[in-house]
Specification:
The complex is a heterodimer. Chain A has helices at about 25-30, 120-130, 175-195, 215-230, 230-235, 255-260, 260-265, 270-285, 295-305, 325-340, 350-360, 370-375; strands at about 1-10, 15-20, 40-50, 55-75, 80-85, 100-105, 110-115, 135-145, 145-150, 155-165, 205-210, 240-245, 290-295, 310-315, 340-345, 360-365. By secondary structure, chain A is α+β, with helices and mostly antiparallel strands. Chain A has three domains: about 1-45 and about 60-135, SH3 type barrels, CATH 2.30.30; about 135-265, Nucleotidyltransferase, domain 5, CATH 3.30.420.60; about 270-385, Ribosomal protein L30/S12 (60s Ribosomal Protein L30, Chain: A), CATH 3.30.1330.30. Chain A has a seven-stranded antiparallel beta sheet, covered by helices on one side. By secondary structure, chain B is of the alpha+beta class. Helices cover about 35% and strands about 25% of the residues of chain B. In chain B, strand 10 (about 530-535) and strand 11 form a beta hairpin.
């Protein structure tokens, strides 16, 4: 993302102009824009004109529109951000108050005006504009019969292909069906990799599986490449990294990213930092349960005692429709920072973020034990 | 001008076609609501069958048919309705409709009206009363009217309903259907069947009532559903028993007697799983055993010997009997469960050789889930036993897993004793250490035995001749020890359940697909129509094979391969369940379960991602809610809504599975109500399904 201009007043109002460049920037934009913001962007509008004789014609015009956002849609697969809202600025083609849906397009400037730019939003801009954060990794997690081809970027984990086939088991006296099934499975996975992984931008490709599936598959892939003279695979052979995983399900990606072989190979990406932070939380919960809490009620209580050392928050809480709710979390983040604690905002698209979201979305590791909190019942929203 | 022409040439009839039907007149003109007129209209919803109007050629049913034509189809007779107000009349008709819906044509209108009036327009009461009186008055008539099948209450899905209705719409039809389905044997005389069916009724009745009431939820009158009334009714009218069975599954002869007939001469069947730490010598032990028992020809063995020598792995030659894929042989480890067969003096054993490597525990769970008894193989070599037994080794994990999956009888095979010079002290040390652990794991002392063997040399497998061993050991050989396992009780009388563990194309000319698995309950015969869930399609069994031998039928506990037709099997996945169409298995993605947590490093919280292993299936899941922490032995709630569940505790949790799978409650089907939870490559908990949400 490129930051073009930034005018933010002392009281937090102001506008920021940004140019999104890649799909991930769309995700950042999705997290920035909330209900009630106004956005100014170039867009295409179908305009109907009626001539003096009464015949009408419609044409498509590109125009700059300013809309007040009412609904925000994000498609994680295609990485498309769509904002619907009312027109709030005079325009030759569109009436005031008319509805329009703006597609945020890559490489086109948009400017965003908020009534209140909070610390979380400002940080999000910094993060989005930091080019060093970009690290594209592809990961293929599999076990016999199941494979997930994922792309891991700084803020997102996208499952590009999920292959789920049944492989016949070995039977007494005949293993040919089993082997045939396995070949077919490998071939499907291989095709998925070729289709979804862009070897030019991907820094490394992780092949993870329990047992020998990964080795077997890698062997198969290389044989296939030399047989078919596939230069792409042969040239990028060194990018493949074989890692152990306990299963082929998506959440095993967490183990893969925590593997020391991966950590040494990749720069310290956000995904990895999140995995570590969450692991740390669980470790404390096991050893010292009175120092690790989750759920808004407990965490707020802990914050009152200025006890929070590390705060883990899922970013979907900041996308909340309700301004009140959003404010609560922003305040929490600010207050933890003021008290010298660290905060980690998890991307809800990563596996670790998914897990945190399930775990009420907010968790904290404390500086000192607060056993009195343990006695208190969990939040009422636990029931839902 | 152009427009004028259009109008001139317009075909008015066509333009206005349909206009009249929609506008300008009331719906009542089309659909007469007058009750007297309704009787003359053909009502599809009443499930008429042409066969109901035809004279059946089955002599024993003749009377019933004519009876029905008298009582049920008295359409022309004007009914006597006492003078009623408008409101009351409306009430009367709605009640009558309800009754007819319940009882079908068998209800004579006059009787219905009388009953409704007597019960002051309370349909439920009227129904009760009608049923009671009809039972009392005319036996044959009553069974007929009550058992008149309707879409089974348990059915949520249209498709099943279709099959159901097809199978038995009217009792008359059922008989003819039975003639078609029940090939292969003749129907037994009524009397014997009635008496034998009486003894299996309690179980069936209980399950049926439970099933219906649970699944329907909104069951209005328990007495009115066909399945729950019929058992009670049947006791009163034993002569009607075989005819009242309206379902394909039930219209066969009695399962128990069939079982005795088929299996009385043969040895008792036992599924045996062999587990243990990697490289404990499981495959070698069992391979050698099979060789000793003549299951593997010496020619074949010679081939294995030569080939393994070539690879420099001669010590694996016996393991090759069970490890058949190239991958398994070249790596020297078992990856998937191998199945084989051998016989002891009194038992016929289905051997399941499970992999020991920790990466293949999902496969091992699949093997153990099918087993009745288990052999735990431990390596007696110095240091090897310890690595397998310490935490991180599979000896502990496997023993726990097998116990959690419901296996209570365990044989511990102390292998490779030749490597330590048949030392008695070593054997005793291992027995002592394992004994303490197994007791803690929940095995009863009398259900565990220990046998010293050497898998590679074959000592004490089938015969005992090593002098160093006979010095201090005189007990049974491994074969004799296996023979002493007690076969478990098989749930023969429960509805059919078969969890599919393998799907493959049938070998040979016949088209169709093969499904393999263990029949958990009930029995199957060729020609049976079964429902496959969660696909929800009806398939027909073309062939049943046990150990590659075609059989006409199979019973609970058998490992079978079925050749089937009727559904698109490319959609069938592992873990699908074949079940009785009338009592389908539940499909769910959310369950409530009681879990026992093992020794784990990371506590379980809400939102914890896990892999759930259930029979042959493994699926991603999350713990969506911690309901309570439970005391391990007493089952009392220690704490409601705990923040986390730590190691060695028990809890009640809610689990959300990433896609719907077939599950059964533990209290209904013990084997099908158990599952294992794993995360990060270790088994973290064992669970029992307590609720399907």
């Amino acid at each position: 993302m490129k930051l073009v201009s930034r005018y933010i007043e002392r009281d937090g109002t102001g506008r920021v102009a940004l140019i999104p460049e890649n799909p991930e920037d769309m995700w950042h934009a999705y997290n920035l824009i909330s209900h009630g913001d106004t956005i100014r962007a170039s867009t295409i509008r179908k305009v109907q004109t009626e001539s003096a004789t009464g015949s009408s014609s419609s044409s498509r015009v590109r125009t700059m529109l300013t809309v007040e956002v009412e609904t925000i849609d994000f498609d994680t697969q295609a990485c498309v951000l769509r904002l619907k809202g009312r027109n709030v600025e005079e325009n030759p083609y569109v009436k005031m108050g008319a509805y329009h849906t703006v597609d945020i397009e890559p490489n086109r400037k948009f400017s965003l005006t908020k009534a209140c730019w909070d610390i979380v939003a400002l940080e999000r801009i910094d993060m989005a504009c930091d080019p060093s954060q970009n690290a594209d990794v592809a990961a293929v997690i599999m076990h016999e019969g199941l494979a997930n081809v994922c792309l891991v970027t700084g803020a997102m984990t996208l499952v590009r292909a999920k292959i789920d086939v049944t492989i016949p088991r070995k039977r007494k006296g005949s293993t040919s069906q089993h082997e045939k099934g396995l070949q077919k499975f490998y071939d499907t996975v291989l095709q998925a990799i070729l289709r979804h992984v862009n070897f030019e931008v991907t820094r490394c490709i992780l092949l993870a599986s329990p047992g020998f599936v990964k080795d077997h598959f890698f062997e198969y892939m290389m044989q296939w490449a030399s047989k078919n003279d596939n230069r792409v695979l042969i040239d990028n052979k060194s990018k493949f990294l074989l890692i152990h995983a306990s299963s082929g399900f998506k959440h095993s990606l967490k183990e893969v990213l925590a593997d020391p072989a991966v950590t040494s190979r990749m720069a310290d990406t956000k995904a990895m930092a999140e995995v570590k932070a969450l692991e740390n939380f669980y470790a404390v919960l096991q050893t010292e349960p009175s120092r690790a809490f989750y759920g808004l009620k407990h965490v707020l209580k802990a914050n009152e005692g200025q006890a929070i050392d590390t705060l883990l928050v899922s970013d979907n809480l900041f996308r909340s429709q309700s301004v009140e709710e959003r404010k609560t979390y922003v305040k929490l983040v600010e207050s933890v920072r003021d008290n010298g604690g660290t905060t980690r905002i998890f991307s809800s698209l990563h596996v670790s973020g998914e897990q945190l979201t399930q775990l009420t979305g907010v968790a904290a590791v404390l500086r000192f034990p607060m056993p009195e909190l343990e006695e208190e019942p969990l939040d009422s929203d636990e029931d839902s | 001008m152009a427009r004028h022409r259009n109008i001139r040439t317009m075909n008015y009839d066509e333009e206005y076609d349909g206009y009249d039907d929609v506008y300008g007149h009331s719906v009542e003109d089309d659909y007469a609501s007058s009750p007297s007129m309704q009787h003359f209209l053909y009502d599809r919803s009443q499930e008429h069958q042409m066969s109901a109007y035809m004279q059946s050629d089955i002599p024993e049913e003749d009377e019933l048919v004519s009876d029905e034509s008298k009582s049920g189809n008295d359409v022309g007779v004007p009914s006597r309705i006492p003078p009623l107000g408008e409101l009351e009349q409306a009430q009367l008709y709605s009640c009558l409709d309800l009754l007819r819906d319940r009882m079908g044509d068998a209800l004579s209108e006059q009787a219905g009206i009388d009953a409704i009036l007597a019960c002051n327009f309370d349909a439920e009461k009227a129904l009760d009363q009608l049923l009671k009186t009809s039972v009392a008055s005319t036996l044959s008539k009553s069974t007929k009217s009550i058992i008149k099948p309707k879409p089974a209450p348990s059915i949520q899905v249209e498709k099943i309903r279709g099959s159901e209705v097809r199978d038995g719409k009217t009792p008359v039809k059922v008989v003819s259907a039975k003639k078609v389905v029940a090939t292969g044997f003749s129907l037994p005389p009524t009397g014997t069947d009635a008496s034998s069916s009486a003894d299996r009724q309690p179980a069936k009745q209980e399950s049926a009532v439970e099933e219906t009431s649970r699944q329907l939820g909104c069951l209005q009158t328990p007495g009115a559903t066909p399945r729950s009334t019929s058992p009670a009714d049947r006791e009163a009218t034993p002569s009607a028993t075989p005819k009242s069975q309206s379902r394909t599954r039930e219209n066969r002869v009695d399962v128990a007697s069939e079982y005795v007939k088929e299996r009385s001469g043969t040895k008792a069947l036992l599924n045996l799983v062999v587990v243990g730490h990697v490289d404990a010598g499981k495959s070698t032990l069992m391979g050698h055993m099979l060789f000793r028992l003549g299951q593997v020809s010496s020619k074949q063995m010679h081939k294995y010997e030569q080939e393994s020598k070539k690879l420099g792995k001669q010590s694996f030659m016996y393991a090759w009997v069970l490890d058949e894929t190239g991958e398994e042989r070249s790596r020297g480890i078992t990856m998937d469960v191998a199945q084989s067969q051998f016989e002891t003096e009194t038992k016929s054993i289905t051997l399941l050789d499970a992999p020991g490597h920790r990466d293949f525990i999902p496969n091992m769970i699949f093997g153990a889930a099918q087993a009745d008894v288990a052999l735990l193989v431990v390596d007696a070599t110095t240091g090897e036993f310890e690595t397998g037994f310490e935490s991180g080794g599979q000896t502990r994990e496997h023993a726990l897993l097998v116990r959690s999956l419901g296996v209570s009888q365990l044989g511990v095979v102390v292998n490779k004793l030749d490597m330590v010079g048949w030392s008695r002290d070593r054997f005793n040390e291992i027995v002592a250490r394992l004994g303490a652990f197994l007791k803690q794991a929940g095995y009863k002392e009398q259900d565990v035995f220990y046998v010293p063997v050497s898998g590679l040399t074959g000592e004490n497998l089938t015969a005992l001749d090593e002098p160093k061993l006979t010095e201090w050991y005189s007990g049974p050989t491994l074969l004799q020890a296996i023979d002493k396992f007690r076969p478990p009780e098989r749930p023969l009388n429960r509805p059919v359940r078969l969890v599919i563990s393998d799907i493959f194309k049938s070998v040979g000319g016949s088209s169709g697909c093969c499904l393999a698995g263990r029949l958990e309950s009930g029995m199957m015969q060729t020609g049976d129509k079964l429902l496959i869930m969660p696909l929800n399609e009806i398939i027909q069994i073309k062939n049943i094979a046990i150990n590659e031998v075609s059989k006409g039928s199979c019973f609970a506990g058998d490992q079978v391969v079925l050749t089937v037709s009727g559904a698109d099997l490319s959609d069938v996945s592992l873990g699908s369940v074949l079940c009785d169409p009338s009592q389908p298995i539940k499909v769910t993605s959310r369950i409530e379960a009681r879990i026992v947590i093992f020794n784990i490093d990371i506590p379980i919280t809400k939102g914890y991602p896990v892999v759930i292993h259930y029979q042959s299936l493994s699926e991603a899941a999350t713990i969506s809610k911690l309901i309570a922490q439970i005391h391990k032995s007493t089952g009392e709630v220690v704490r409601k809504r705990p923040r986390c569940l730590t190691k060695q505790t028990s809890g009640l949790v809610e689990i959300e599975i990433s896609r719907p799978i077939c599950m059964e409650l533990y209290k209904d089907y013990r084997e099908l109500g158990r599952f294992m939870i794993r995360a990060n490559g270790t088994t973290i908990a064992a669970g029992l399904v307590t609720g399907i949400l």
